[in-house]
Design brief:
Layout: E1 24-30, E2 36-41, E3 51-55, E4 61-62, E5 64-65, E6 68-69, E7 76-79, E8 85-89, E9 92-96, E10 102-106, E11 117-122, E12 128-132, E13 137-141, E14 147-151, E15 159-164, E16 170-174, E17 180-183
Antiparallel strand pairs: 1-2, 2-3, 3-4, 5-6, 7-8, 8-9, 9-10, 11-12, 12-13, 13-14, 15-16, 16-17
Length: 185
C-alpha cells in the first residue's frame, strides 16, 4: 500500500514541505520509537540556503541555535543509539540531542575546508560513521564529536550512501558505481 505521509495536499497532517511550502525533503530516518525524522531544504543556494529537521508528527522542529541557522542543506539523517540526531550538512555533521539542542558540529579532522559529508550511520557503540565523498574516505567519530579514525580500503571512490547492520557491518554505496561494498570491523 502506498500513501502520502507528507506533501502537497490539503490534509493538515501532510502540510509542511514541497514547492508550495518552500521546502523539499532531502533525508529521512525512522527513530527507534517508530517516529519519522525528515531533513528539509529551502531550495535556495549560497547565503540564502537553509534547512531544518522535523518530526512527521510536528512535535519537533530543529533549525536554529542562538539565533543562527543550524543547517545549510541537511541531506542525510540518523538517530544515534543515545537518542542524538545526527545530520550530514554542507561541510559539517550537525549533532543535536533528542530535543533539538546543539551538541556539536564535526567539520572533519583536517585544517582544509573540504570535508564533504553525505551518508551517515551509527554503530552499536554510538560512534558516528560518515561518508566523506570528495576525500574518498569514511570518518568514524565518537558520540561526543571526537575524531577516532578513517576507514579506507583499496579502491574506495566517492563513498556516498551508508547503512549499518546489527553486527556493525557498514554497507557503502559509491557515487557512479554499481557495487555495494561491505566493511566488517
Amino acid at each position: 500500500e502506498s500513501r502520502i505521509l507528507w506533501g502537497e495536499d490539503e490534509d493538515p497532517l501532510h502540510r509542511g514541505c514541497g514547492s508550495k511550502f518552500g521546502f523539499t525533503p532531502q533525508g529521512i530516518a525512522v527513530t527507534k520509537s517508530g517516529g519519522i525524522l525528515i531533513c528539509l531544504w529551502n531550495n535556495e543556494f549560497g547565503e540564502r540556503s537553509s534547512g531544518k529537521v522535523i518530526s512527521i508528527d510536528g512535535k519537533l522542529q530543529i533549525f536554529i541555535d542562538k539565533n543562527r541557522p543550524l543547517y545549510v542543506c541537511p541531506t542525510y539523517i540518523v538517530e544515534n543509539g543515545n537518542g542524538d540526531i545526527c545530520v550530514s550538512d554542507v561541510r559539517a555533521v550537525v549533532v543535536t540531542d533528542a530535543g533539538g539542542m546543539l551538541r556539536f558540529r564535526y567539520q572533519g579532522n583536517s585544517s582544509s575546508n573540504n570535508f564533504d559529508p553525505y551518508g551517515i550511520c551509527c554503530d552499536s557503540s554510538c560512534n558516528i560513521i560518515v561518508a566523506d565523498m570528495k576525500n574518498n574516505k569514511i570518518h568514524v567519530v565518537d558520540k561526543d564529536g571526537e575524531f577516532l579514525y578513517h576507514v579506507t580500503y583499496d579502491g574506495i571512490k566517492m563513498p556516498r550512501a551508508l547503512c549499518i547492520d546489527g553486527n556493525d557491518r557498514v554497507y557503502v554505496g559509491e557515487w557512479n558505481s554499481d557495487a555495494i561494498k561491505v566493511i566488517a570491523r
